[in-house]
Each structure stands twice: as C-alpha cells, then as structure tokens.
Design brief:
single chain; 90 residues; mainly alpha; Methane Monooxygenase Hydroxylase, Chain G, domain 1; 3 helices
C-alpha cells in the first residue's frame, strides 16, 4: 500500500485509468466480434455494416491509449480484408 501522498494519488489514478481502459477495450472487442460473427454467418450486408461501426471504435480505442495506433491499424486492415474477400467482385 502507498504511504506518501503522491503515491496514494498515483494509486487512485491508476485504478481509474485501468477501469476506463477496460471499458474502452471491451467496447472494441465487442465491435470486432460482431464483424467476425457476421463473417461466419455469411451475411455480407451485416458484415459491412458491422465493419463501418467497428472501424471508428477501434480508432478511438487507439486514440485513448489502451491500444497502440499501429495495432489498431493492423486490426482494421485485417478485418477489412476479410470483409472484402467475402464480397463478390463487380
């Protein structure tokens, strides 16, 4: 347990940040899971809609800190590739 005033504050801050990061990461994982479920189900329109909703959520997660920006970019790229492979070429 922290004994100095500054260490106690740091402890409080880290607890708040941990909770905030958990919420943001959980929201992102849910969005990604919705895209993957649509891909498995074979629902093209649903997959596209889920991807459109997931991309800004992933970017916001990277902007808030719990996810590195390059990791976010890689996730978006891989999801987009999977959705595009699913769609027939016109």
């Amino acid at each position: 347990m922290a004994n100095h005033k500054s260490a106690m504050k740091r402890d409080r801050q880290s607890k708040v940040r941990r909770l905030r990061n958990r919420i943001v990461k959980s929201r992102m994982k849910t969005a990604v899971r919705k895209v993957e479920e649509a891909l498995v189900a074979g629902a093209e329109d649903q997959a596209q809609d889920a991807l459109k909703q997931a991309v800004p959520i992933i970017q916001k997660t990277a902007g808030k800190g719990p996810l590195h920006r390059k990791t976010a970019s890689r996730k978006i790229s891989r999801l987009t590739k999977r959705v595009n492979r699913m769609l027939p070429l016109d």
